[in-house]
Amino acid sequence: MSANINVIELFAGVGGFRLGLEGYNGKSATSNYKNNLKPNYKVVWSNQWEPSTKVQRAADIYKERFGDIVNEDITTINVNDIPNCDMLVGGFPCQDYSVASTLKNSKGLIGKKGVLWWSIHNILENAKTPIKYLMLENVDRLLSSPSGQKGRDFAIILQSLNQLGYGVEWRIINAADYGFPQKRKRVFIMAYHKSTKLFRSLNEDWLQDGVLATAFPVYEVQKKQISNFKLPSDIVDISKNFNAKSNATPFENAGMMVNGIISTIRTIPDYNGVKTNLRDILQTGEIPKEFYIDNESLNRWEYLKGAKKEQRFTATGVEYEYSEGALSFPDDLDKPSRTIITGEGGTSAGRCKHVVNTDKGMRRLTPIELERLNMFPDDHTKFQKVSDTQRAFLMGNALVIGVVERIGEVLANKI
Asked: Which of 15, 39, 74, 165 has the maximal Cβ count within 10 Å?
């Protein structure tokens, strides 16, 4: 199969989706960029915009690595300027997806201002020809947010896709469960337009052998354990009332939606292959001295990483008891890494920063090591005027490329 699935990439960051679908110089992330990746996909348009900063580092790096990228606020882009495509991909931000209202004479829905899900909705609704496939990624708490109406946000997304003519399957995938080097748990959402054969094939068997379960196998699904329910048809009603009287989300870690009917079940990963641990991604050779922890700051690191139970005060002077458990210090080299975060950079001590013990002393992870934990090529984020702290931030926002690659391979085969 040649590159015949044209893709638009939203919220592109530094190109994780693109690397998973196209590879790097045609090479596969899961082979450490040694083996060829079949050219099933071609990214024809990308968008990246960071609203909180004047300097657009992610877009700069993306352009340097791949060429042109539209570095504009997606909410301001004319859908007619986006080329036709077969698939839309993106890791959209996790926000409050509640619907404020519908306009009596309006075609579309009015969601909360600035909520980027509605930008995706707008593109799908107004595309010149229907976009056949979606591959979306988000934090796993999307299935249980907000706290007062657990699952409401996800229900809004599912019903809006249903109204646009899509069937959906989803799965929370922890990359480390399938041999990848990082414990990074994310929900992946695959959607298929009603014009496709994949939509017509959707049934409960997909919980065992659909795109996501084929890419990331699970133990046998017992159909009697599947929970089924119908979504309310009115999205405003979902926004106001969905699951308002329950303390638990109705959405399990895997499921599907066809014609507004939900089938969902808790699945267990089934993987016995090779595992990659933190030790496996460490750089060899000389590491700059600024990554090492000096004796003067060691006590601070130990305090932040340790268990605590102490009295603290709010800004208004109210006393309360604060407690938290201990984190591994240093990190265990013979297990997959903990989830890397945006604050991994910088020399100051940090509770959630990774620390490894080497023959030359305790140190933080380097930008290259953070890239390897997400399966990016070495120095992918190295660029003029991009600091090590900024490189760490970009990796904290990225995804594990191998997950996208495997899903992409299975999807192309099923298509």
From this structure: 15
Tens-digit pLDDT profile for residues 274-288: 999 999 999 998 999
The one-letter amino acid code at 6 reads N
Residue 259 corresponds to which tokens in the numbers above? 């014609």
- 352 as an active site residue: the answer is no
The confidence score (pLDDT) of residue 268 equals 97
State pLDDT tens for residues 205-243: 999 999 999 999 999 999 999 999 999 999 999 999 999
- Band the pLDDT of 130: cuts 50, 70, 90: very high
Length of the chain: 415
103: confidence class by pLDDT, cuts 50, 70, 90: very low
Measured between alpha carbons, how far is residue 68 from residues 71, 300, 358, 400 in Å? 9, 44, 41, 23
- Domains (range + CATH), the chain: 5-272+400-414 (3.40.50.150), 278-396 (3.90.120.10)
Output the pTM of the full model: 0.93
Q: Which of 94, 164, 304, 327 is catalytic?
A: 94
